[in-house]
Design goal:
Blueprint lengths: L1 E11 L10 E17 L5 E5 L4 E4 L8 H10 L11 E7 L9 H16 L6 H15 L6 H8 L3 E3 L6 E2 L6 E7 L6 H14 L1 H23 L6 H14 L5 H12 L4 E5 L6 E6 L4 H10 L4 E7 L1
Parallel strand pairs: 3-5
Antiparallel strand pairs: 1-2, 2-5, 2-6, 3-4, 6-7, 8-10, 8-11, 9-10
Helix pairs in contact: 1-2, 1-3, 2-3, 3-4, 5-6, 6-7, 8-9
Bound molecules: (R)-mevalonate.
Length: 308
Amino acid sequence: MKSSAPGKIILFGEHAVVYNRPALAVPVNQVQVDVEILDSDSAGIWIHAPIIDLHAELNSLQSDHAIGSVILKVLSLLDESPSSPNIQINISSTIPVASGLGSGAAVSVALICALSSFFSLSLTDNQINEMVFESEKLHHGTPSGIDNTVITFNKPVYFIKGQPIETFTVGKPFTIVIADTGIPAPTKESVGDVRKLWEKDKNKYESIFDEIGQISLIARRSIESGQPEMLGDLMDHNHSLLQQLTVSSPELDKLVLSARDAGALGAKLSGGGRGGNMIALVNQAEANQVAESLIKAGAKNTIITEIK
Ligand code: MEV
């Protein structure tokens, strides 16, 4: 039994989305997590996830282990004790860990989908999304739920925390270059730091969140009305607000500037920040040129993706 889940990028609204402002995210299908479940001769539930150097039997993992706890949650829906099925779970991924592309949520989504099929549980997308969100809450502090939602439904989302999922249509396709600083940056830390700033000066940070929320709203209208070229300035503005939230970094700023110098229409960090990935809006014909400049400026990897 095999299942997979895509990566994601946040186009607009990261961090502010934790404080109930809207954000836009899209799946990135060029990278993905694959989970395969096989019947096995060895006793127990063996998990092999070479990306994080994990080769272990479920019961040897701590009860709060990110992958182990997701498996236990699914098993609790069965009438069997955790050690009764003899299976092997192989997890592989091309999504870099802690890079802002949603690797953690994608592992959970692919894992739950594969287990649901293997045990004929017929879980719905809503149920899967809810279970992944519970796991995100355990491991990532105060997540908004945007990562699990865009990855579970594998659709563009206009996301407001706690509200029913809203997708959006793309009036005219547009091209994004994604570039990885290669610096792992756990979202939990940047989200926690923003919370500390907000607690010290709520007025100041609420108004930054308001501005970011406005950008998401205008961006959605521009995308739906087929005017993606408007997104460039919105990205630049969103990046400067993220700098004020202290979640950018010299490496991210350098990539953002070099994307703009190479002809991008706008650029910003994407996801939790401090490291991880940035995104740039480009004319399709200039995508390769911008990607090459980003590599020259220090990016470890680039992905060109069309949003349609
Ligand atoms: C992470 O992809 C996006 C953040 O806004 C955190 C969250 O929404 O949970 C930084």
